[in-house]
Records
---
Amino acid sequence: MLKSYLFEPIVYITITLIFLSAPAKAQNTKSEQLIKIETSLGDMVIKLYNETPAHRDNMIKLCKEGFYKDQLFHRVIKDFMIQGGDPHSTGAEKGQRLGTGSPGYTVPAEFHKGLIHKKGALAAARKGDSVNPEQASNGSQFYLVQGRVLTPEEIDILTQRGMASFTEETAEIYMTLGGTPHLDGAYTVFGEVVEGLEIIDAIALSPIDAYNRPIEDVIYSISLIK
């Protein structure tokens, strides 16, 4: 039986489904592309980073194709993240376990030290390191970081244990805005919410079932703004 295509903060969950690699071609865009996520709990505007052109262009392609229409946020964990992008979620029955879907390809990892898992970050889900040593991203599944605000003591502990590294600037971000720093450098961050950050909080409060799927469907669609 297939396991969900998910990520975990420490222990990675693997699946038996194998995805073909078909990286998107980079585009030379000077301004940052904006996308709109319209959800049943409110809307968000996200800018896609030009520093991650493969992920940016893949998202643009999928939006143009109408791929992200009436899908569900199928995995929600309060103080961590909300996850979507599984095409199997469109029209899924109540209680159906989701998380194995993709467009049939992966996208090569694009890690940048300056692109971190702060609150509101858009990042790509992927299979675990044991079956995905190159840390390639699922072709469509993504998550939006909620995380939480860290204390200076927690920053020190994560640093001492080698679970995260910080600059003075990123430490300040995690101690004020919040996020999930232990994911930095392991999952590709390719955008951030610029409007509607509170919608992540609203979705994260959704009652969930045993598979972390909201009991009441949180439906969304994604489109290009410009």
---
Amino acid sequence: MAPDAQPAGRLLVLIPAYNEEERLAEVIAGVRRIRPDAEILVVDDCSRDRTGAVARRAGARVVRHPINLGYGAGLLTGYRYADRCGFDRVVQLDGDGQHDASGIPALLEALDGPADLVIGSRFLKGSGRYRPSWMRAVGMWIFARVASATLGRPITDPTSGFQALSGRLIRFHARGNHFPQDYPDADMLILVGRNGFTIREIPVTMFEKPGGASIHSGLRPLYYVVKMTLSILLILSGARRTAGKEAT
């Protein structure tokens, strides 16, 4: 597909954000340069700064949570908005400038592959250089291998927030009761794969997180490992079911 070709169907670019007033305008401008036709939705997770005002001034539509609910809740709000408004695809990226918006066309081209979920991986050949902290790298390594073994195909970056979703996967998440409020990572990939959706990975460029608080700081990495392990075990045992499969 040529770089300026436009995939068919309405596109929503979803940006969950919490206290990102310093970088959000630049992120939105980057998306506008790449896909001026897309609607941009910023889900403001009850930020304490001017995140919502900055997003509106940059031309994005803003939905604000009345309380801080978590990263996954921000994504789910976006999926429900996309489902309600009839969008055919969603590209999600973070509001901190870590994701390079120039990767959006490649994600959409892979989605036309066809696929239901395209993950932008920072670890595939051709993705550039990215070095997470050693603690986070260990967690990524463990859950990448669990996801790969369960799905029967290599998964290199289960924690990537730079993704593209098809309309049927949007509906699956939006109309189900399975999506977590905090960390939708390897467990959701396994759930999606086990429900018959096609998953692909492509290399993308990501940058180091430019300061600010991380959702993986403090004791959160320990919580993340315990929570993710339990969630995966529940999915594999069949105890964690969905109410959205009929939406596919």
---
Amino acid sequence: MKDWGGIAAGLGTVACVVVMLIVGRLGATTEALTIYDMAGLRMGVAAILAAPLLARAWPWHVRLRDHVIVAFFGGAPFVLLLFGGMTFAPVGHAAVVMYGALPIFAALVAWAWIGERPSRWQWIGIVAIVTGVGAVGWEALGGAAVPGQWRGHLLFLGAALFVAIWYSGMRAARLGVIHSLAALLVLNALIYVPVWLLFLPSGLFTAPVADIALQTVVHGVFGAFLCIFGHAYAVKTIGPTRQAAVGAWVPAFALIAAIPTLGEIPTALNIVGAIVVTVGILATVFLQGKTRPA
């Protein structure tokens, strides 16, 4: 029963991520709200929802350095890279490039920071991921796709690097769920949200209420709050390996979901890239071998 609950939580996090990508692309390509608005709603609403839990868990015993690392690399800057990329490239590309590059960057950052050197099988999986991501990138650079999509790909790669540093920072600091929430949300709520409201381009006061409500619920409630708890519960019940395997379905599901919701029809190369990336992610998860010290 525990396994089924953990698998359900893992699938729930995948659903949250896919919906976040779909709605993020919708918001990034319309004029109602800016990407700064989406980042502000995500950070602000999640901080409000988490406030009772954070207050109850005080003091958090999180070092200032860990606050800064987690807040910067997992907070508003990461969101701006991701949604900024979506102004240039479609959801299918975001899912394949970002979630394909993430295991690569995670392995390299963990090697440099924590001293965990990837095993031989992990390198094989990484090569497969690079091939899949390269297929999508090659199409954009080759002119078959919409001109300028390569800019989105670069931003997606930046977002993947930020997430890899964020994850390694939480792991190096040994942060639990509540501590991770505190480190992620507090500085973003205290620094980014006021800067956004006072200085950054915004459509918050002119956008339709429906648009604001959609972005608030998807990014603030699901993307930045419930997804963290779902991930933590899945890791606790079914383990990080099986949870990572469940998460490998994000590229494929996002590619499929974008067809009816956004009218984004993937090319054959997009589909092949998503399949190769998924296989590569699964290889890095299940064929780990022995992790070697640096």
